[in-house]
Amino acid sequence: MTTTETPSERPERSVPKPVFTDAEAGAREFPDSGASARRYNYFAPAKRKQTHYEDVTVEVQPDPRHYLTQGWIYGFANGETGYPLHWTKLKAWGVDEPEPQRGIGTGGLPVENWPAHGWHEFRDPNEEWEQSLYRYNANVVRQLTQNVENARNAKAFTMWSPNWVRFVERHVGAWMHIEHILGLYVFASNERSAPTNMHNTALAANSTRKIRFAQDLALYNLTLTEEIEGFDGTAHLDAWNSDAEWQGARKVTEALTAIENDWGEAVFAANIVFEPLIGELFRSNLVMQSAAPNGDFVTPTVMGAGEYDFAQRDLRWTIACFGPLVQDREFADHNRQLMSGWLAKWVPQALEAARTMQPLWSAVDHKPPRFEDSLDRVKNRFAGICSDLGLDTPEELKL
Amino acid sequence: MSRQSLAKAHQKIQELAWEPQYHEPYMKYGTDYTFRKSAKKDPLKQVLRSYFPMEEEKDNRVYGAQDGAIRGNMFRQVQERWLEWQKLFLSIIPLPEISAARSMPMLFHVVPNPELHNGQAIQMIDEVRHSTIQQNLKRLYMNNYIDPAGFNNSLRNFQSDYCGTIGRQFAEGFITGDAITAASIYLTIVAETAFTNTLFVAMPAEAAANGDYLLPTVFHSVQSDESRHISNGYATLLMALSDEDNRQLLERDLRYAWWNNHRVVDAAIGTFIEYGTKDRRKDRESYAEMWRRWIYDDYYRSYLVPLEKYGLTIPHDLIEESWKQIWEKGYVHEVAQFFATGWLANYWRIDAMTDEDFEWFEYKYPGWYDRYGKWWENYSRLATPNGHNAIVAEDVDYVYPHRCWTCMVPCLVREDMVMAEVDGQWRTYCHEVCRWTDVEAFRPTYQGRETPNMGQLVGHREWETLYHGWNWADVVKDMGFVRDDGKTMTAQPHLDLDPKKMWTLDHMRRMPPLQSPNVLLNEMSDDQRQAFHADYVRQGPAGRPAPTDA
């Protein structure tokens, strides 16, 4: 005979009980229940249909000219509040219109014709928000890790000539400092300053890519220290601090961090002038051209990731930011003159720094294209960027 | 990461530290704190090569859960009472998050420690993540929840609504004024270390109990970043403590930051957790119990008190006073009652408390019914339009409160209200500490010491001022809290979506005009003002008029 044991009764646990509430879309009809009510309706999209990027970005940073009826509630000691429009000398249409003057019994005076001024028309063509930002950068670091790992397994570094090893440890290594300084002390440093959330988020994303690339180079340098006998992992510091070839670029890089109270000039000088004339000169026209003849197929993949960052993302949003200002319906002349002034100020510094780097073109066994040819290429590229922006190519480019 | 250990990789990236050789960086932001170049380590030890894939994976989990929630018809089980309060919460929170991102450069400018800048930069990216992931969650609610009104005009609403303005302190306070006061003490030492526990841990648990498992999905993912930010603040705090001259400022800023966070966060999150829930199990924690655990024990006793040995003056008195406000003076209940009184100036629906709610409140807060029960019964009686006005204009034994100039939550614990004439204007404050904040702390000198970088409290801080003398229908229309038929209000004092039971602008039109308490206060003679104050502090609890027989 078999017996069945009665299982001991489990004491009832205290847990929330599911309740059928029927609170899903479409369950009832009432004012605002229709499909047309299911979109953010407080801004005008750039195109016919608002994008996901716009939904998560636009209007998060308030503007007293829009709906901020009680105004900013904290001020700096000098009386400035929020995100002052004069934190750049650039102007977008409508900025000289006075802010609504609110007070006793005035009502909220909400914006009637959004966006009230031209700054709010900017959209980052890269549509950076968390998903795009993490997907992009995670893909880059995954690919880089695999590239370097593959080279390590294939013992690819043994094919490098001694001169190339010295070049990579000193000069490719030195470049990490420029990316780091630009990332932290130019782009991140200015992401509190611009007038809209779209600008500041683009600045933060640009900063992120720069800081990542700086770390990519540093960690690549660490791998090489582990993999190549005699590779000096600290030589980049000596090059950065002492090599004459680097002092020009360093001086300009540091000057970019010292731009006073103008986020517009900082971004313009970094992405429109410095990057094409110095960044692409070094990355594309020296390192990436020299590596293969010197037995190195790995370094171009690391450098290439940074190059793609700039060419396909950093420059892209920068053109979208500054281009419309040159055509601004109210301040086109003002902005064109201002940007021309910035070109006159920064192009000579960049060219002088570029020329200081010239000896690097002779530092390796298998030489890259001539320095002057490389410089001509970046000058042409730079002239094209000026043209894309609607700016005249500066006279200083002939220097 | 490949074979390189995280510690080794982190050590390597320290070689990126920059000592300017030709140009000093422009220092846009200032502080009255001084820092020796004492080398504190970056506590995050985060390297972007591992950070990005980690965050991407976290994102994938969040978005996978969101797909699952939609496919599984989560909104058939979501409590409307809960989701309605999310219209307020999710309109506020993306701005504090993005403001936290914006505050990081302020720290680069004033904290002379390149190693810490790395952690701050990563926090900047995290905060961009948080702001946009929260905007996206709200978008999902708007698309899938029965009533999109309030979500769909969320950021306009938030910027023009008085509750939004209260919440905005938890954003502008991070990015304005003295860089250390704002971005370090107010943001990381107090807001993130103490109050994100209730915001991002306690509140999501309540969401889950109300059928919403997306809020926990998103906010626990967010909180897993916050815990790293806490380390950022701690390192900066230790640097500040190493300089004796900073002690006075630290004491000032901890008092301000603690009290303001208590006033703002406890008001909002306390209301969401206690009045936004349908989970009335007696053994679920009340907000007071959560506060005791998360804030009093975990933050105050475990984090703050040990810092005393490093010379930090802890505001013990304010922590005890905050607890007293919550436990004895009914702070959260008073705030929830006020939110419901002013339902018509909001953009979400607030339903009445029921017998089941009453029982729970009485169990958790003995004496609750005697204080608040009758008023909530009146709220229920006046919920659907039936020839009467909205509750704010009906006689329900409730005196409309004055607003605190500093924290902008009304002066609801009436006995604590104080007044001061500041910059030619009479102002009311909900508590002596709020008066101190405005009159003494946010000034260019503090206790005789020059504090030229300290910020200021500015703006039209009393919302009613803007609409003084306006008809309520025009107020609601001006703020844009109207549905797509052009007359039905976004806000309602009940959850019934039957159009016949919903309040419209026509119902508002017949109400008496809105009056600004502060404008009226400033029109009084000195004697009238003193009499007003004497009466005010005898009012309450639950907003009751002062007794006439005293």
From TrEMBL, chain A:
Show the segment(s) annotated as Disordered.
1-34
Catalyzed reactions: propane + NADH + O2 + H(+) = propan-2-ol + NAD(+) + H2O
- Tell me the SUPFAM superfamilies matching this sequence: Ferritin-like
What domain of life does the native source organism fall in? Bacteria
Question: What UniProt keywords are attached to this protein's entry?
Answer: Monooxygenase, Oxidoreductase
The family database entries (Gene3D superfamilies) matched by this protein are listed as: Ribonucleotide Reductase, subunit A
EC assignment: the record states 1.14.13.227
Q: Which InterPro entries match?
A: Ferritin-like_SF (IPR009078), Phenol_Hydrox (IPR003430), RNR-like (IPR012348)
Put simply, this protein is called propane 2-monooxygenase
- Organism annotation: Pseudonocardia xinjiangensis
